[in-house]
């Protein structure tokens, strides 16, 4: 078995081991609370049926109405503001589940919209992530040059690790800002707001905490709606930059010499070039079929 196949096998085994570990821990932490909640709901259901003389069918209908009425507290879900929020949740694959199309035409369009929108969103965030990394690298070079002009000799070279740390710092700042804003506007605890931010920007989107779901806020507070959309899109773009760097580093360490020589090196990891050239000054030689800077590229392993 060659090196790349061995690595793939190790990753598969590691992933499934991690899944088994997660299942064990969640079972350990959540099973007792789940049983207690089920018993409590059963008891409350019994008390309500006894107090109001509900039949089983009537009570089931009441539960359905209560669940379906929750999204309508936010306002008109399918007017432009709500529809735009829903569309954003779809193409970012967050998928809270707070609302869903009810008509046949709406469900059909949602499938087609997702099939085209999700790849478009992934490509967009990947492209933004590359630009963010390039901008961060350029800023780090400027900061290094400024410090050196003041006599401070630091950062001999800009590495992917520096960019990852910077991107994570920016992403953490966005999460902290979102935590505070959602804590104030949604009346969540700080931990609940932080939990929501992390789950959203990781595109898990359980839907247990969803903003913009009360007091007709979709139509009453457009500034808060815009902030929520901006938080989701900006946060995903920044964390896409981190993922982009991590994937590129893995690919660089997992590339055999033949295939590495056959393609142009990733532009987002050519950090030292940014110290002397800007993106606008890159030249292309059609005879050599490579960029002018590729001969100076070197990946530190």
TrEMBL record:
It is found in: Membrane. It is a multi-pass membrane protein. One of its GO terms (molecular function) is outward rectifier potassium channel activity. Residues 67-132, 174-247 form the Potassium channel domain. It comes from the Eukaryota. The keyword Amino-acid biosynthesis does not apply. The chain crosses the membrane at residues 7-26, 76-96, 108-128, 163-182, 194-212, 224-247. GO terms for biological process: stabilization of membrane potential. Its main location: membrane. GO terms for cellular component: plasma membrane. SUPFAM superfamilies: Voltage-gated potassium channels (SSF81324). Keywords: Ion channel, Ion transport, Membrane, Potassium, Potassium channel, Potassium transport, Transmembrane, Transmembrane helix, Transport. Belongs to the two pore domain potassium channel (TC 1.A.1.8) family. PANTHER family: POTASSIUM CHANNEL, SUBFAMILY K (PTHR11003), TWO PORE POTASSIUM CHANNEL PROTEIN SUP-9 (PTHR11003:SF172). This is Potassium channel domain-containing protein.
């Amino acid at each position: 078995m060659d090196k790349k196949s061995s690595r793939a096998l190790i990753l598969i085994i590691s992933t499934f081991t991690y899944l088994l570990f997660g299942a064990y821990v969640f079972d350990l932490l959540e099973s007792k609370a789940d049983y207690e909640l089920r018993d409590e709901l059963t008891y409350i259901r019994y008390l309500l049926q006894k107090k109001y003389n509900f039949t089983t069918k009537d009570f089931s209908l009441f539960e359905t109405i209560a669940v379906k009425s929750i999204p309508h507290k936010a306002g008109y879900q399918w007017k432009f503001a709500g529809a735009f929020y829903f569309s954003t949740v779809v193409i970012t694959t967050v998928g809270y589940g707070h609302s869903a199309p009810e008509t046949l035409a709406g469900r059909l369009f949602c499938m087609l919209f997702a099939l085209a929108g999700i790849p478009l969103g992934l490509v967009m965030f990947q492209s933004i992530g590359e630009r963010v990394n390039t901008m961060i690298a350029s800023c780090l070079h400027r900061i290094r040059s400024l410090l050196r002009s003041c006599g401070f000799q630091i950062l001999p070279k800009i590495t992917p690790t520096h960019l990852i740390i910077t991107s994570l710092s920016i992403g953490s700042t966005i999460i902290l800002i979102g935590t505070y804003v959602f804590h104030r506007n949604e009346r969540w605890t700080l931990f609940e707001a932080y939990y929501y931010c992390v789950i959203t920007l990781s595109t898990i989107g359980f839907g247990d905490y969803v903003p913009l779901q009360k007091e007709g806020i979709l139509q009453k507070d457009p500034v808060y709606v815009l902030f929520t959309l901006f938080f989701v899109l900006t946060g995903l773009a920044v964390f896409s930059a981190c993922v982009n760097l991590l994937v590129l580093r893995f690919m660089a360490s997992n590339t055999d010499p033949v295939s590495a020589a056959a393609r142009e090196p990733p532009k987002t990891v050519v950090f030292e070039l940014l110290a002397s050239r800007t993106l606008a000054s890159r030249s292309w030689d059609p005879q050599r079929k490579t960029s002018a800077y590729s001969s100076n590229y070197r990946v530190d392993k």
